[in-house]
Amino acid sequence: MQFTSTEKLVRTLTLGLLLATAMSACVVATEPRHYAAGVVLVAPPPPREEVIGIAPVPGYVWIGGYWNWVGNNHRWVPGYWAAPHPGHVWVAHQWVRQGGGWRLVPGHWAREGR
């Protein structure tokens, strides 16, 4: 059976439309056992031991590494030296329990005495 170029075009477009329609019915959802509304349902691993070494400049503060949640797993963010913020102290990143999961409280500079 021979098809004209117009018939071939119509068949190709029809098949493409059917395929596109079928694919649009696919739903991709985040796996709820890992992450829900800012709460990670997978406990972070224990902190890694880091070799701190000597500050590159006297007075610099060590900002310790921490586990961050990226995509669907924990990834280690290594520590680094940072210039001090006069009148402030560094408060490290920490994972806190929230409901049935964990929430990362980002590290930050806090005024001394608070």
Q: Domains counted in the coordinates: how many?
A: 1
N-end to C-end Cα span: 84 Å
What order do the helices and strands follow? HEEEEEEEEEE
The chain-level mean pLDDT equals 81
Largest sheet: 2 strands, antiparallel
Indicate the percent of residues in helices.
10-25%
Give the overall shape: elongated
Structural class by helix and strand composition: alpha+beta
| Strand segment tally | 10
The rounded Rg comes to 26 Å
Query: Segments where pLDDT lies below 50 for 5+ residues?
Result: 26-32
Q: How much strand content do the residues show?
A: 25-35%
Neighbour order of strands in the largest sheet = 1-2
* Count, helices: 1
Descriptive tags:
114 residues, alpha+beta, two-stranded antiparallel sheet, two-stranded antiparallel ribbon, 1 helix, 18% helix, elongated
Task: Describe what you observe in this structure.
The protein is an alpha+beta fold and 114 residues long. The chain has one domain. It has one helix and ten strands, in the order αββββββββββ. It is elongated, with a radius of gyration of 26 Å. The N and C termini lie far apart (84 Å).
